[in-house]
Design goal:
Blueprint lengths: L5 E4 L4 E4 L2 H23 L8 H31 L3 H19 L7 H13 L3 H16 L6 H17 L3 H19 L4 H16 L3 H28 L7 H22 L4 H16 L3 H19 L4 H17 L4
Antiparallel strand pairs: 1-2
Length: 334
């Protein structure tokens, strides 16, 4: 590799990089959160006095590595969802590095890190690197019996995004159809995890100028998220409820925001479908306590519903009630 010109120094460790940019990406991407765990792993251990102590120390190191892998994967996923792809790469690379040290080369346990590296490189438009990681992941899954449908789904989704970005639309559609199939086997066709596949299918159809097909896929995504949010918000009001992760919520906001823009372009800013998108996006902001964004989206939706359906229509009244509850919750208690 390139010569190390920059040193990243913390109380827990010192690491050398070829450039300040790489050092900054690594620090911001993952090291600042895991330095306290990473430092001891990179420091040569003292000599053990007995076989029992060596075994105990080995087991402790392996457990630490597994915890570090989970932390790195979480950070990489968070950066990818936020579009900070250059920060996701070092986090995923550490997950791959320590996964390889535990499990060895070519093991299925490495596939999540390979997929994360592929997705980050796709985001940076580094198609060659992305395809290389996807090919490695695909080879591992091909030779692994009974691997999870979740991994198969993620692999197909990333291949679909790669082919779409290269203008290979028919191949992208086949990969994304497989993605939806495997995700449906895993969690069902109406699950928010599966909605990402429908969304990518919609994007490919839109790129092919098959607008009706694209809008049909977007309708499916919106419907899935509405049912999910109606369920979790109702459960949240009644007490402890199943949680939407920050990463999944960010993914939902990104998808629904893009669908809102597409609906505005294709059917108009005052169309009922546009109002529906705005309302559901408002519900998702509400779930995560983002009150101002939620109010703005619901106000826009209410105006469209009142104009299209009238103030007394049950759908309009549902939006008005949601907005009223949101405003009531936002008002300070005297």
């Amino acid at each position: 590799g390139k010569p190390a010109l920059v040193s990243l120094v913390s109380p827990f460790l010192s690491i050398h990089f070829a450039s300040r940019e790489l050092a900054t990406h690594a620090w911001e991407g993952v090291i600042r959160k895991v330095a306290h765990v990473l430092g001891p792993l990179l420091t040569p251990p003292p000599l053990a006095s007995s076989e029992e102590e060596r075994h105990r120390r080995f087991e402790g190191v392996q457990a630490t590595k597994r915890a570090l892998i989970a932390m790195c994967r979480d950070e990489a996923a968070r950066h990818v969802v936020q579009g900070r792809y250059e920060l996701a790469i070092p986090a995923a690379a550490y997950a791959l590095r320590f996964g390889t040290s535990i499990y060895g080369e070519g093991r299925v346990e490495l596939v999540p890190a390979l997929l994360m590296l592929a997705e980050a490189n796709l985001g940076l438009l580094h198609y060659g690197e992305a395809e290389s990681y996807l090919t490695k992941a695909n080879w591992v899954l091909l030779k692994t019996a009974n691997c999870s449908n979740a991994l198969r789904s993620q692999l197909r989704r990333n291949f679909g995004k790669l082919y779409a970005s290269q203008g290979r639309y028919e191949e992208a559609l086949r990969q994304l159809a497989d993605d939806v199939y495997y995700s449906s086997l895993m969690v069902g066709p109406e699950h928010i995890d599966t909605s990402g596949g429908y969304f990518q299918l919609g994007n490919v159809f839109f790129a092919m100028n098959r607008v009706e097909n694209a809008l049909a896929m977007y309708d499916k995504v919106v419907d899935i998220w509405y049912k999910c949010l109606a369920s979790v918000l109702a459960a949240k009001a009644d007490g402890p409820a199943p949680m939407l992760s920050e990463a999944k919520g960010s993914e939902g906001i990104e998808m629904l925001s893009q669908i809102l823009k597409r609906r505005e372009e294709c059917v108009g800013e005052t169309n009922l479908a546009t109002g529906e998108s705005s309302y559901i996006l408002g519900l998702l902001h509400q779930y995560f306590g983002e009150v101002q964004q939620a109010q703005a989206r619901m106000h826009a939706a209410l105006g469209i519903y009142e104009n299209r359906l009238g103030a007394e229509h049950h759908s309009t009244m549902d939006v008005a009630k949601s907005l009223e509850q949101l405003q009531g919750a936002a008002e300070p208690v005297a």
